[in-house]
Amino acid sequence: MDPRPVSISIVFPAFNEAENIGPSIAHAVAVLDEMGADFEVIVVDDGSSDATRAVADRASSDDPRVRSIHHPRNRGYGAALKTGILAATKELIFFTDADLQFDLAELGGLLAWADRYDIIAGYRARRSDPPHRRLNAWAWGKLIGLLFDLEVRDIDCAFKVFRRQVFDRVPIHSVGAFVNSEILVRARAEGFSLKQIPVSHYPRVAGTQTGARPRVIARAFVELGRLHRELRTLDRLPAERREELS
After folding, report:
1. Residue 90 predicted with pLDDT over 60
2. Alpha helix ranges (H) inside the chain
3. What is d(CA 170, CA 155) in angstroms, rounded to the nearest whole number?
4. 147 in a domain, yes or no?
5. What 8-state DSSP symbol labels residue 50?
6. What is the C-alpha separation between 143 and 150, in angstroms, rounded?
7. What's the whole-number average pLDDT of the chain?
């Protein structure tokens, strides 16, 4: 008897990725079809000003396994990711960026561990980004480790698989780039297991990166401070009260 097919939702948060979102969807569908997976592809257009919405809508009309969701205005990466996760219906949830910097054919390497771990997180074995972005990422990872005692290699790598019960217990409050860190910090606090896997990373060839913009970075620091204060407050409460609030 053949094993039960993988049940997986792929979430693509997308902002002004008109040149990339079509190929991203097509690649995802091809990879998952080859796996024989029970899948859906969810595109969350985060208030794009280009043709991202139209491209995603066209893909959705051509294939019922592709779902196109829209934010009327730009709300932030974390907000778009949360919308996609809440819309997901499959047993596993995978999210990645719609910029074609990852090879979705490597998803199988993560899924090979899905029966043993709650979270399988990719890390970029060799990051194909400008030096200042690599430096920012290194410093950010060190800061997260210092404040939350969480050592994760390449914490913001957008190539992660989760069992859906992770999000039944882990709330997402971040609307910006802090969302990856928030999810893993909260998941560790809930006792979920984590496996890290190296993945390939490629240069962006179309569209514009937004993660290094000052406003995006400033929002991430605000959200980091908010979570740090929240967890410190919880640590000071009696165990019974912490249980009530969890």
Report:
1. yes
2. 18-35, 52-62, 77-87, 107-111, 131-148, 164-169, 179-189, 214-236, 239-245
3. 17
4. yes
5. S
6. 10
7. 91
Q: Is residue 206 part of a domain?
A: yes
Mean local confidence (pLDDT), 58-85: 98
Q: pLDDT per residue over 10-48, tens digit each? A: 999 999 999 999 999 999 999 999 999 999 999 999 999
Average pLDDT over residues 195-215: 84
Q: Are 62 and 41 in contact (CB under 8 A)?
A: no
3-state secondary structure of 6: coil
Q: Confirm if 216 and 210 have CB atoms less than 8 A apart.
A: yes
Residue 1 has pLDDT above 50, yes or no: no
Whether 2 is covered by a domain: the verdict is: no
What is the spatial distance between Cα 10 and Cα 23, in angstroms, rounded to a whole number? 14
Structure tokens belonging to residue 108: 């199988």
Residue 110 lies in a domain: yes
How many domains, in total, are found in the chain? Answer: 1
Backbone angles phi, psi at 7, to 5 degrees: -105, 110
Give Rg (Cα) of the chain.
18
CA angle 38, 156, 211 (to 5 degrees): 110
Domain that holds residue 223: 7-245
For 133, the token pair is 């972005």
Q: Provide the whole-model pTM.
A: 0.90
Read off the pLDDT of residues 118-145 as tens digits, 9 standing for 90 and up. 999 999 998 877 788 888 888 988 999 9
**Tokens describing residue 62:** 């051509």
CATH for 118: 3.90.550.10
